[in-house]
Design brief:
This protein is mainly alpha-helical. The chain has 24 helices and seven strands. It comes from Paenibacillus chartarius.
Length: 676
């Protein structure tokens, strides 16, 4: 079963091991350490590596060499090249190369070094160091308590968002099915199968899947809630680095992790769904932090990290990309005013970074357009859609709390005593950036553009926890330097968490589904049992195509009556499966055919907006299943009993298994495929 402990343990381990290898361990080998702040270094590496992964993957897809070994090989060569350059820069003495790694390998090959005698003391030493560090951390009082509080918040937020991912294999919302299909097309070295649309998200997941070596369905399910957790980490990271107040950061995390249901409204389900927009959102606050740091310090590494994050977002989704661009505009204006133009080079560098990122983002799309690939139909409809029936958004208490925090933060930034002219830059930037986001959200209705009206909600809702956290920081500053200030802050964060749990008791997010859990679980069962064989799944539902297409086995999909070929219109039930009407030789299809028939049509809730689009399909399915019953009865009367059996059956679903024993024709076709 999908939600069994061992199944989830296996796939979660593979998924997070691939994430750890690609986005934590590998970048440590490639990118230089520029700060002693481990979290900042890790996040900078994450942004840089995400863009590097996308750049390598896009290139390999374009030259039709996108395979696990090619991706791993390119990244390994980059890591080795960087290693060699570093060692050359760290010579032990003039004219002497530091080739200790090569020497160690030769010594080991010659038996001069024994792994046990080398590794065991190293592990013992590291274990003792970790033990002493843990003891000193546990004795740190409020710091340790803040860590525990953060762990509790992350735990509650993870339960709310990961519950559906580990209990239901069904892709969430309509976007999940599209993403699954595009992931599998990317693995088959095809971009934009349905038209031009930013493909960075799907390419990123396809690369993760190559290293995780699991069905793409699992990667898709896990990455959605993980994106939400990274957004929450963005609040903690930016607030603690700009204010040094862990309590303020914990309050922001609580607002997003526990209270989102109160102000995200219909968009709340997106936090547990796999969406390219939310993937881009996970980069936004990290990226803007590094841009602010560059404008304050001039460190080129922070500029590169910000550029990498911006470019990665630009390749994945245009909405968060434009949002970052808006932040860069505010940052340029504020920096120029605060420095009176005396540090204009940083302004120029930031502007150039924005231009370069725009070029990177549009390059794959421009190349596709040059090859006459049309724009994805859904994009053109959404962007051009106009509605004049919208009203000004109705504000809830959390909106007012965020607006009050904007005013409070801006006033504090104006009166704040600073040692340097750029010390007030983070506060001013956040206040104006979030204020402009609210203006888009509130007054965007006057544009009558659906894309702005709908997507600006996501931007504003995502901004609320950040600005409330910054507002809490200002309130804490009013306490002055009293001795128990840290204790008061920790108590306030605890009270906010306790009150939030009382107001909004944690319960899992369950996004709407277009397919039943049983159907997808049986698909996974088929892929497991027939991993080394070809098989064909027949179903009238369009959702089955992204499931079966490009699976780890050799799956393919066929419709019942729509499309060409289709089971009921083209194939004779009285002959060996599957043989076309009027022919004697069976078609070149798999020997194992699984026909899905719903006894009770699974339907999305009528409360969901997408129901009106799906309802006509449900009526069509009823007619097709009636015709299927007649086809199956004829097949049962004509074929040997062992060639048509019931693979699975319950009250809602039955799956027929048609089997064709291998014959001379199958072997001849297989030989032709091999030699062609």
């Amino acid at each position: 079963m999908y939600d069994s402990f061992w199944n989830q343990s296996y796939h979660l381990f593979h998924f997070f091991l691939a994430m750890f290898l690609l986005l934590y361990l590998w970048p440590k080998l490639i990118f230089p350490q520029y700060t002693k702040d481990r979290l900042e270094q890790t996040i900078a590496n994450y942004l840089l590596m995400a863009f590097l992964m996308l750049a390598v993957s896009f290139f390999l897809i374009s030259v039709r060499l996108y395979e696990f070994m090619s991706v791993a090989g390119v990244l390994a060569l980059i890591a080795y090249h960087v290693y060699v350059r570093r060692r050359r820069a760290q010579r032990l003495s003039a004219g002497e190369e530091d080739n200790r790694l090569v020497q160690w390998l030769f010594d080991y090959a010659e038996g001069l070094i024994h792994l046990k005698s080398s590794i065991v003391p190293f592990l013992i030493r590291k274990t003792r160091q970790l033990g002493s560090a843990a003891k000193s951390f546990a004795a740190s009082g409020l710091t340790f308590y803040s860590f525990l509080l953060m762990a509790v918040i992350f735990g509650i937020a993870a339960y709310i968002r990961f519950y559906d991912a580990v209990h239901s294999p069904v892709p969430t919302m309509s976007d999940g099915w599209v993403a699954l299909k595009w992931i599998k097309y990317a693995e088959r070295q095809t971009l934009y199968p349905d038209g031009i649309y930013p493909a960075g998200y799907q390419v990123f997941l396809a690369t993760i899947r190559k290293f995780a070596d699991v069905d793409a369905l699992y990667v898709l399910k896990y990455i959605g809630p993980l994106n939400s957790m990274l957004i929450m980490l963005g609040y903690y990271f930016t607030i603690t680095r700009w204010t040094s107040s862990k309590a303020a950061a914990l309050i922001a995390m609580t607002v997003y992790g526990v209270l989102s249901e109160l102000f995200f409204h219909v968009n709340y389900a997106r936090q547990a769904s796999s969406m390219s927009q939310e993937f881009g959102m996970a980069f936004v606050f990290f990226t803007l932090y590094f841009y602010v740091q560059y404008m304050r310090t001039g460190s080129r590494v922070t500029l590169w990290a910000g550029m990498a994050g911006t470019a990665a977002v630009g390749l994945a989704h245009s909405i968060p990309f434009v949002w970052i661009g808006m932040g860069m505009g505010w940052l340029l204006a504020l920096h120029f005013l605060l420095t009176r133009g005396k540090e204009w080079r940083r302004d120029v560098h930031l502007a150039l970074a924005g231009v370069i990122c725009v070029v990177i983002a549009i390059t794959p799309i421009a190349l596709a357009y040059a090859f006459r690939v049309t724009v994805y139909e859904g994009v053109t409809e959404f962007v051009s859609s106009e509605k004049n029936t919208y009203q000004l958004p109705e504000l809830v208490p959390m909106d007012y709390a965020a607006l009050a925090s904007i005013v409070l933060l801006f006033l504090y930034a104006c009166v704040k005593k600073t040692a340097g002219k750029l010390d007030r830059l983070p506060e001013l930037f956040i206040a104006l950036f979030v204020l402009s986001t609210f203006m888009l959200f509130y007054f965007g209705v006057y544009t009558e553009r659906e894309v702005l009206i709908v997507r600006s909600r996501d931007l504003w809702y995502t901004s609320i926890p950040l600005i409330i956290g910054m507002g809490a920081y200002v309130l804490f500053r009013l306490l002055g330097r009293i001795r128990i200030r840290q204790a008061i802050e920790a108590g306030a964060a605890t009270a906010v968490l306790a009150g939030s749990v009382f107001i909004a008791p944690p319960k899992p997010i369950i996004p709407y589904k277009l397919e039943s859990k049983t159907t997808v679980e049986q698909y996974l069962r088929i892929t497991r049992l027939y991993a080394t064989k070809s098989y064909l799944i027949v179903s009238p539902r369009i959702q089955m195509f992204p499931l079966t297409f490009g699976t780890l086995g050799k799956g393919s999909h066929m419709y019942l009556e729509t499309g060409s070929p289709s089971l009921l219109n083209d194939f004779d039930p009285t002959k060996p499966p599957l043989t076309r009407y009027g022919q004697e030789e069976h078609a070149d299809v798999a020997a194992d055919i699984f026909i899905f028939k719903e006894k009770q049509i699974f339907q999305v809730s009528q409360d969901e907006e997408i129901y009106r689009l799906e309802a006509p399909k449900y009526k069509r399915y009823v007619g097709e299943y009636k015709n299927l019953d007649a086809w199956i009865e004829t097949a049962k009367a004509s074929l040997p009993p062992e060639n048509i059996t019931t693979f699975y059956e319950d009250d809602n679903l039955i799956i027929y298994h048609l089997y064709r024993p291998e014959n001379k024709l199958d072997r001849e076709r297989e030989v032709r495929k091999i030699w062609s």
